[in-house]
Amino acid sequence: MYHSITDTADDPYRVTVSPVRFARQLRWLCDRGLRGVSVRELLAATAEGRAKGLVGLTFDDGYADFLDSALPLLLRHGFTATVYVLPGRLGGENGWDADGPRKPLLDEDGIRRITGAGMEIGSHGLRHVPLTEADDTTLAAETRHSRALLEEMTGRPVDGFCYPYGQVDPRAIRAVREAGYRYGCAIDPGPHTGAYALPRVHIGENDTSWRLAAKRVLHPLRRRRPVGPLPVPCAPAPVGAP
Ligand SMILES: [Zn+2]
């Protein structure tokens, strides 16, 4: 799980990885015979039993720096990725992060260019609202309407939704499924883990080779779907990284 790829010393929410570090992380994957792919591609491969060696790469929030920083490096390695964008904040900025720094978000043209380069575009909702706190009207708009806008913009089906702040509960999951998405990305969904609450691991600027190796080993163990019946009702999901 990535967010922004750029050079900055001001990163209170730990959402930024420098292009140099990002390039090293992609090289790390390559050196181990691993290939970065979009979540759509990863799930299709998993269904066909050919996901070995594939690593899903995701970019939340739709930062405009993806185009100049991440995309060329991904293409150079022959990788794909999924970018979860905010069609209610096109060309805007990350106003939900109170402490800043302000970062520009992708506009319509940028989203089309990313699609044209072979990447998957998914929805992060309309305006980065935590779905677990949204009323019914907002919940429907954030899921259903954002998907319709992105499908119209890209001319392609939008299969993936990514929960803002990683916050999931059964009601949010139902809304995402009923809006026509085929999967949902969370962070650490615990008992909700499944196709509509996929766990992901945060990758940051300090993730050097040995830390990536540790995360690779630990991720499937720590984020394993709990065995046994699903507990209901569920405790509120912890607030993760933005
Ligand atoms: Zn986000």
SSE blueprint and pairings:
Layout: E1 4-5, E2 16-17, H1 19-31, E3 35-37, H2 39-47, E4 54-56, E5 58-59, H3 65-77, E6 82-85, H4 108-116, E7 120-123, H5 136-154, E8 160-162, H6 170-178, E9 183-185, H7 209-222
Parallel strand pairs: 1-2, 3-4, 5-6, 6-7, 8-9
Helix pairs in contact: 1-3, 5-6
The structure holds zinc ion.
Give the overall shape, derived from the CA principal axes.
globular
Q: What is the assigned CATH homologous superfamily?
A: Glycoside hydrolase/deacetylase
List the ligand species: zinc ion
Please report the total strand number as a whole number. 9
Question: Explain this structure to me?
Answer:
This protein starts with a strand and ends in a 20-residue tail after the last helix. Strand 5 (58-59), helix 3 and strand 6 form a beta-alpha-beta unit. It has 242 residues and is an alpha/beta fold. Helix content is 36%, strand content 11%. The protein is globular. It has a single domain (17-222), classed as Glycoside hydrolase/deacetylase (TIM Barrel). The chain has helices spanning 19-31, 39-47, 65-77, 108-116, 136-154, 170-178, 209-222; strands at 4-5, 16-17, 35-37, 54-56, 58-59, 82-85, 120-123, 160-162, 183-185. Zinc ion binds next to loops.
